[in-house]
Design goal:
The complex is a heterodimer of chains A (about 110) and B (about 120). Chain A is mostly beta strands and about 110 residues long. Chain A has no helices and 11 strands. Chain B has about 120 residues and is mostly beta strands. In chain B, strands 2, 4, 5, 6, 9, 10 and 11 form a 7-stranded mixed sheet that branches. Chain B is built from no helices and 11 strands. Classes of the chains: A mainly beta (about 110), B mainly beta (about 120).
């Protein structure tokens, strides 16, 4: 089955810096890659996703890139703000739009 | 749009009792709902996939007789933790899949409920 690895497990940046979180997946058939933000004690919130037919997608300060050949995808947050502090999870779909397999999460801390 | 609710938000129960958790899609029809468990500072672990009108598909290692799932309608799925024990204490989150068909082809997105924190004493 699908296996998703996520790095780093923790990331501390200064406000205004950029943050990059990377994930790799094992199943070449996976074709949907969402990113979720989870604040303490709350539900995961979808922040951006990408399908396998595109290599990059951007939404204001957030962007995701996908390298299908290398089977890795990354989340890029620019001009970070303290409210970006949360745990971020990547995920990959297994078997084509079926269940999601989640990465282990990255705890992002943005210091003012 | 795409709002998912979950009830209760937290529950404390005695060991040996059963607890039912409801997951509802409020403004869309969800043909598929997923149940996850999340332990502190860990990732989301899929427990089962629930399709409306059919039996749930459980992940390896998840006891189907202990975690009963019912998906009776397109907007409601329930998870019952039977004979709960302290090791079942966790954060249980459901998600519902909405089917969105853009011009480019078929695509789907999962939206999560707020979660239910279960504490078994």
């Amino acid at each position: 089955g699908e296996n998703v690895e996520q790095h780093p497990s923790t990331l501390s940046v200064q406000e205004g810096d950029s943050a990059v979180i990377k994930c790799t997946y094992s199943d070449s058939a996976s074709n949907y890659f969402p990113w979720y933000k989870q604040e303490l004690g709350k539900r995961p919130q979808l922040i951006i996703d990408i399908r396998s037919n595109v290599g990059e997608k951007k939404d204001q300060r957030i962007a995701v890139t996908l390298n299908k050949t290398a089977k890795h995808f990354s989340l890029h947050i620019t001009e970070t703000q303290p409210e970006d502090s949360a745990v971020y999870f990547c995920a990959a779909s297994e078997g084509g739009f079926q269940k999601l397999v989640f990465g282990t999460g990255t705890r992002l801390l943005v210091s003012p | 749009g795409a709002v998912v609710s979950q009830h209760p938000s937290w529950v404390i129960c005695k060991s040996g009792t059963s607890v039912k958790i409801e997951c509802r899609s409020l403004d869309f029809q969800a043909t598929t709902m997923f149940w996850y468990r999340q332990f502190p500072k860990q990732s989301l672990m899929l427990m089962a996939t629930s399709n409306e009108g059919s039996k749930a598909t459980y992940e390896q290692g998840v006891e189907k007789d202990k975690f009963l799932i019912n998906h009776a309608s397109l907007t409601l799925s329930t998870l019952t933790v039977t004979s709960a024990h302290p090791e079942d204490s966790s954060f249980y989150i459901c998600s519902a899949r909405t089917y969105v068909q853009p011009l480019a082809g078929d695509q789907e997105t999962q939206y999560f409920g707020p979660g239910t924190r279960l504490l078994v004493l």
